[in-house]
Amino acid sequence: xxxxxxxxxxxxxxxxxxxxxxxxxxxxxxxxxxxxxxxxxxxxxxxxxxxxxxxxxxxxxxxxxxxxxxxxxxxxxxxxxxxxxxxxxxxxxxxxxxxxxxxxxxxxxxxxxxxxxxxxxxxxxxxxxxxxxxxxxxxxxxxxxxxxxxxxxxxxxxxxxxxxxxxxxxxxxxxxxxxxxxxxxxxxxxxxxxxxxxxxxxxxxxxxxxxxxxxxxxxxxxxxxxxxxxxxxxxxxxxxxxxxxxxxxxxxxxxxxxxxxxxxxxxxxxxxxxxxxxxxxxxxxxxxxxxxxxxxxxxxxxxxxxxxxxxxxxxxxxxxxxxxxxxxxxxxxxxxxx
Length: 338
Ligand SMILES: Nc1ncnc2c1ncn2[C@@H]1O[C@H](COP(=O)(O)OP(=O)(O)O)[C@@H](O)[C@H]1O
Ligand SMILES: [Mg+2]
What we know:
It is built from eleven helices and 15 strands. It is of the alpha/beta class.
């Protein structure tokens, strides 16, 4: 079977018919996936004018390439308009929005809990805050923040109006995805969704910080984030365990390679305060946060204890709980690092 890399090699030399540049030059390949079971290629391609009559010819040429030359039995192809990257950057420069992505090498380390708590702590510190839940594989922000899952309203110019909870404006993949769809179709959908999140959400005019709950690991999404918001700064989450930390380091290096600034590392589930003797039990080992910070050459911003928030309904800590205080201190450090 043809590999993704091979497929990319073959496609990137094709010419966007209206601007006469290769897809590599226009950065027009937005998603490449292979459904191995059905031997199908899944592509999202952006053309400079997707409705031009030349685009039809392009589609035929691409289908021939994929099916006849490369031997796939099927092709799922979506063509979209090439959006100028300027749009996002100009908007952000004017508004001075800071995007802060929360990344981890693997799931289950508390990435979503941390993203939500940072956003809430930042809002409580008097700032206008948004949150994008871009974890397509396990969007859990509505759950963490106790938000109902329903379709958001739109404006007359087709912008999505985010929900508001704890003074944070929230947009989640969970509001849009069909959970019955197999995971592998989510790749191309994700790209489109991310584009919507960065261009088509009606945030408050004076929004200052947008926290992004990224899917675990690196890969396609990391590339999407890079092309849509190259200025996105990153925070890497790890647990104290050496295995978790080595995966977190990989995620961090991935972000570095894509030229994202890494603000620092957060170690979660660092210890459990034993109520009987007040001792810190190191349930998940120790040293992970320090190690990741050292390897990435960034500060360890804080260590969170294993504790349920004093609240039955959601996973947001009060700011006078020990973890709440840590979140507040991390937010202060983020705000200082402009
Ligand atoms: N510091 C913590 N103490 C106790 N439970 C935590 C802590 N951080 C996260 N959890 C719990 O661990 C689970 C995974 O957290 P989550 O934020 O969903 O991780 P991820 O987004 O990395 O998959 C959730 O049930 C969450 O409530
Ligand atoms: Mg999560």
